[in-house]
Amino acid sequence: MTARLDTYTVPETLPPDVSAPDGPDAPAGPDAPHAHAALAGPAPLEAAHRRTRGVRSSARTLGRSGLAVLRRPGLLLAVLFLLLVVAWALAPGVFAAQDPITGVPTDRLQAPSAEHLFGTDHLGRDVYARVVHGSWLSLSATVIAVALGLSVGSLLGLLAGFLRGWVDDVVGRVVDVLLAVPSLLLSLAIITVLGFGTVKVAIAVGITTIAAFARVMRAEALRTSSTTYVEAARASGVRWYTVLRRHILPNSAGPVVALTALELGSSVLAISALSFLGYGAAPPTPEWGALVSGGRDYLASAWWLTTLPGLVIVAVVLSANRISRSLEKDGEDR
Amino acid sequence: MGRYIARRLGQGGFVLWAAFTISFFLLYVLPSDAASIKAAGADGDLSDPELVARLRAEQGLDRPVLVQYAHGLWGALHLDFGRSFSSGAPATKLLAEALPPTLQLTALALGLALAGGAALALASTYPRARWLRHTLTSLPALGISLPTFWVGLLLLQWFSFELRLFPAMGNEGFESLVLPAFTLAIPASAAFAQVLSRSLRQTLAEPYVETARAKGAGRARVHFGHALRNASIPALTVLGVTVGGLLAGAVVTETVFSRAGVGRLTVTAVNQQDVPVVQAIVVFSAVVFVVVTLLVDLLYPVLDPRITTRQPSAAA
Amino acid sequence: MSVPVHDDVLLDVQDLRVGYRTTAGGDAPAVDGVSLQVRAGEVVALVGESGSGKSTTAHAVVNLLPRGGRRTSGTIRFGGQDLTGLSEGEWREVRGRRIGLVPQDPTVSLNPVQRVGDQVAEVLVIHGLARRREARRRAVDLLEKAGLDDPAARARQYPSQLSGGMRQRVLIAIAIAAGPDLVIADEPTSALDVTVQRRILDHIELLRSTLGTAVLLITHDLGVAADRADRIVVLRHGRVVEEGPARSVLTDPQHPYTRELIAAAPSLASTRLGSGAAVLPTSRPAAGPDDGTQVASSAPLLEARGLRKEFPLPRGAAARSLVAVDDVSFDLHAGQTFALVGESGSGKSTTARLVLRLEQPTAGSLLLDGTDLTAARGEELRRLRRRFQVVYQSPYASLDPRFTVEQIVEEPLRAYKVGDARARRARVRELVDQVALPATALGRGPRELSGGQRQRVAIARALALRPDLVVLDEPVSALDVSVQAQILDLLSALQAEHGLAYLFISHDLAVVRQVADHVGVMHRGRLVETGTADRILLDPREEYTRELVAAIPGRRALADAGTP
Fold it and tell me: What is stated as this protein's family in its record (chain A) (predicted)?
């Protein structure tokens, strides 16, 4: 039994060709070929015959989604790049040997080359090394921000969607207000109170993401709790907390996971913008936004100082968005 | 219809009240002593209790919180957010002075964003060639991944320093407006295009589109006569957020292009922890959001008769 | 191959093949060599279950295949002209002008933001038959022709202001606007109530006789086909299995699949399953009073008394509240089936939800074996729930997609901590066996099962706690007829074996007469007539019941053919 429990906690990605007809009540639209399965009766059983019950484990599910990644080169690239950036953050020394803080004065403002991939800045510091070493602060700020939004926002949304009534009204109003103030301005107001620094910036950005998580989680909780299978569980006598744990949470998770990936991307943008404005770590500590800002005085002479660190930010955000989109699409397919 | 408008007005009023209240408690009450912030910002002399006390009295901070709140709310209703900690001028006056250049900038950017976004959305759904649709569909995803400050700096690099087409900074004339407006418009148009093209694709899959095609309607008639109006309804919803985003983007853009405006005022106020000015800006941005959302709400019934018409009565 | 069979052949489809692009690459065939003809002024019914390719065939005829679908071979000739080589521009002159299409679901097939009159007028404008102003005027005439009352006022309304039946009439007006020679009606009434369905089909028939338009009627209901068509073409798995005049297909089917379909079609069958007593729809029962409850000797298992349910309406609506169920009383005895029949909005499903205690009644009482269900709360109610379980209409929606069959069936056992894990496992196996599913299904998810198999899982779940009463809320209306018959058989067998009482909710009198001992007819929240199934069907006393009985498709054909 224990091996089998994880079949419903791990999201299951069925390859699209196996998925049986899942449309609304028959007779549905122009009869797509997969509808054959419905009529043929035992056919889908036959098709799935190879898969014996015992193997139906999380390992196989992971293996399958691994295959799905391989079939989509864009997605594969996005995952690999994000893994690389995480590796930069965890072990920057492995990827960039040069010192990110003290430069070699004779090497100042050199264009990109084999020796200095991203060139050097006005103090002769290797820009690539500064990007690699800056990824720890930038990424951890992002993770703090999203973790804050995810935990507070989803809790609020879950309460609103599951309890409804006045709780829903209150959460709805709070979300309205959070959405009414543009997130960057809200972050700035919070920074006015908290002061400067990477963690404070992360908290300020995290608070602005609460609204999005609360909205999505509420919508999902409302949707799943009004499904027939939840009602069927209630009607057969299952207690409400069991329904919440076994049906509502697992079936609401998909879109929230997709949103998490999306918010990781937009938080990277928001944090780098605040860091660009100078509210993050104090120099000379490298941080992505601050790196771009540092190149402003050399726009005319050293393009690489702004362009290349900026490109890294773009690539990270693009990758996060790409992953979010495929998570969302997998959710729609099921 | 009257009931619909009244309800929307009520909701808008509530949001404004809540935005004021939350920012008030955030900015004035949470920090144990707003005056000490001011003192730190002004001359850094926190150790002088006499100065702190004088400042507290000056700002009315020695009164009970609820009295301060009532006073603040009463003032806000009269467009009075108190005096700037740093310059001593009324916060509302500072905001009003900074507003015109920012309005020009965001208005131009909004026009560019809507036109560009709509064009991109149509271009990514209309062509018959699959590869072209696919390529154009991926553009908005790229656009929303670009940091505003980076786009601004790249535009500066190319158009000011390389090509010398536009000035690099300042508020002089229309030419100085072009690059900042494009900087602001690029991410905004990408976001708008994403919502509209998604909505268009969903609409084009609706059964009533098949009905139109079964009538013998051509591609253009189906797209512009049936799908676009239906698809623009959800796309309009994001207009409030779009305008708010442009206002917030002005903070970064005005910094990059060294323009005067609300954005620069915000940066200065945050740097000096000038609480009254920050609060005035936050509440102002909520006003903008509420007004835009209200305008959109008034536009809905024009586009979608379902909002004001009654439900079906009885059987056939 | 493309030699016309007859001079007046209007539509001649030869060896049509349509494939859908699959994710694996390559095409999955949906239509696999279909040939059919429609003569001028003729009604041909294309009958098949889901996945038979009937709708795909219809869409291929007007070249409106859904995304991913394409014609791989075959010819389509219309009025002597080969359509297969037409450009998109030339197709546009065929669609609407020469072939009209009545789509499946009227509630979503009209543009919600355009006035219906303009949507009808558009056809005339597209084909250059009228200028805008003139087209609008003619649209009103067309709406009148399609059978809408007060067409001038209707033309200025939006779709959301019209009922489903009215919308279908608007779509008929659109289809006939340009005076086409052929109208393809794709399941034109499957989304509508039976009485509305009958009126719409009557009207299509009227148009055929007045305008001489040929009709290709796509339907899953053999009864509808038998009533309305001159000829019937039976499709299965993308192939034609039988074709011929409606009467001979019905009375003398050649292919075993057609015989199976006829046997399964509830509207053409007439026996109470499991009882063996045939009830001929043309015969009348022995005269005698019948109060509908006299059969039972013992006290009823379930007594509903004066049930009433009001739903509050949002402020600003005309009324304060909506009365969904109004003074409904009935008895249900152990081992018997009581069916509640009604159209959408009649309150039958709300009544089921009241019985299931998913809604609290505004007034009235429910006694289960003498215990008042309406008064029960919390743990007491949970204990009572063991005794009444439910099977829902849609087997796609009522099973959690993340669960395996074993987990689904086990869930009620776990909820009541019945036995240990091993005992529960054994019980689940037994249940799955009872509903005739293979043991290999246990580890599968609902997605890997067909509709009928999923419904079997739902039944197994309902039986897990050995309830006395099972509420069956439209348990077969989402299923194909042949699957319907299997599920109804299973339900009868289980009832006989376990002495179950069924509260059977259905919109379909034809299905009801196969399973019910007693029938209650609901209309606008009230129970207008109750009685034994035979009595209700053969001797309906209320006007509304008579209308319902008359609307059962297949009756006309049966009367003509003179066979049950």
Answer: Belongs to the binding-protein-dependent transport system permease family.
